Amino acid sequence: MARKDPEIITEKDLMRRWSRSMRAQGKTIGLVPTMGYLHQGHISLVKEAQEHADLIVVSIYVNPCQFAPSEDLATYPSDFQGDIEKLRALSGGVDVVFHPQNLYDYGTSGAVSENNDASGNSCSSQSGDDKEKRAEGAAVSCIGERQYGHETWVRVERLEKGMCGKSRPIFFRGVATVVTKLFNIVEPDIAVFGKKDYQQWRIICRMVRDLDFSINVVGSEIVRDADGLAMSSRNVHLSPEERKKALSINKALSRAKLAAQSGQVSCRELRNSVTQAISESGGKIDYAEIVDQESLEAVEEIKRPVVFCIAAWFGKVRLIDNIEINV
């Protein structure tokens, strides 16, 4: 089968022009937002998008505004050429790879803004190192030299507060904002998000509803390696021993689901068993929450569809996973 070479677009106006031209021809567009370093989980999102749309756009952009200063923006893995090869090898291929250097560069003049939020987090102004990163096509600051910083943020206030929002208070603000920007630039008919990032998926669904985007948001099931570990670009940073220990996450969640299906309704008992198993395997728990699948509100007894969400550290790598429980 002949490989399909995607068109690579780096400019916002060219991306929007392409989308509008295709839509004028009656084509539907599917968007798969990614931060690159693609794995089979991402490929499954593309395949899902192919089921819903005529044309596929994959965005590759490491969004700096969802990383706090202490987080792993500088070490987030990237392999753009490898990503292109994976997409070329995919049956049906993709039509466009949208690969902007900086979605927060507006070319305006003025003094540099500190752009701090209430908690003191900011996207810092561009340094010499940042210029070098721009040249390499890596992530760059959302504030350029002699420019006003990005000042408009999208927040889904209730849904972003729990779970990942507790330890990463600016994360979902950054995610919702960059996804809004991508929606406004690409103008897709559908967008596919992985349910491994369950809270993120629900936040995007609510944002689309509340802001009247005419976009169908599709949630795609978690893809796991043969050993059961949920696929993540950050898995590359796990040592062999840490990876082996991290398998305790899915094993513990699977046991909890079986227990719930067998009649255990106490969320406290289920949480205790899961956190104990992960801790005994060397993991450091960030959170373990059993929440309603739609509202993400915590529940004490399983009487309706819930999702058990986990975040845990193994070494310097923070992993998230979840399992839906339908009783």
UniProtKB/TrEMBL annotation:
Lineage of source species: Eukaryota, Viridiplantae, Streptophyta, Embryophyta, Tracheophyta
Organism this protein belongs to: Nelumbo nucifera (Sacred lotus)
Reactions the enzyme catalyzes: (R)-pantoate + beta-alanine + ATP = (R)-pantothenate + AMP + diphosphate + H(+)
GO molecular function, a single term: pantoate-beta-alanine ligase activity
The entry's keywords: ATP-binding, Cytoplasm, Ligase, Nucleotide-binding, Pantothenate biosynthesis
Keyword Cytoplasm among UniProt keywords: yes
The name this protein goes by in its record: Pantoate--beta-alanine ligase
One GO process term, biological-process aspect: pantothenate biosynthetic process
Subcellular location as annotated: Cytoplasm
Documented EC number(s): 6.3.2.1
